[in-house]
Amino acid sequence: ATATLVGEAGEEAIPTELVEVGDLLRVFPGGKIAVDGRVESTGALFVDESLLTGESSPVPKAQGDTVLGGTTCVSGGCLMRATRVGCDTTLGQIVQLVQDAQATKAGIQRATRHAS
Q1: 74 in helix, strand or coil?
Q2: What is the C-alpha to C-alpha distance for residues 80 and 95, in angstroms, rounded to an integer?
Q3: For residue 64, which phi and psi values (nearest 5 degrees)?
Q4: Is the dihedral of CA 42, 93, 14, 22 positive or negative?
Q5: Alpha-carbon distance 2 to 23, whole Å?
Q6: Euclidean distance between CA atoms 66 and 80, whole angstroms
Q7: Residues 6+ away with beta carbon under 8 Å from 105
Q8: Measured between alpha carbons, how far is residue 28 from residues 42, 48, 53, 97, 114 in Å?
Q9: What is the chain's percent helix, strand, coil content, to nearest 5?
């Protein structure tokens, strides 16, 4: 996955893993939002957050609002400032919780087998 970094030299597509907190990113209509961040630009923006919230309707966002990595910009596009990257994003934390729960379940299953 990539993100579009906006810098003094223009815009550049970079791997999501290289995005740092504080980076200014451009999000295009129809594009995935790479990391958690804050909307910096004005204008209408609608985000599909169904991956994280289950909400089927696009959610309107405005300047200053939070956008979450893993969601999709349905329309509008924006500039956003990265606030959480990598495993610190909301999606990264959900993945970690699921992995931890699966590891705990496996341990309990082993203990149950030994007890029976």
Answers
A1: strand
A2: 23
A3: 95, -15
A4: positive
A5: 14
A6: 9
A7: none
A8: 14, 13, 21, 30, 54
A9: 30, 35, 35
Encoded tokens for 43: 């204008």
- At position 42, the amino acid (one-letter code) is T
pLDDT for residue 94: 73
Q: pLDDT per position in the chain (116 positions), as tens?
A: 899 999 999 999 999 999 999 999 999 999 999 999 999 998 889 999 998 888 889 999 999 999 999 999 999 999 999 999 988 887 777 777 888 888 776 666 666 666 65
What's this model's pTM, rounded to 2 decimal places? 0.80
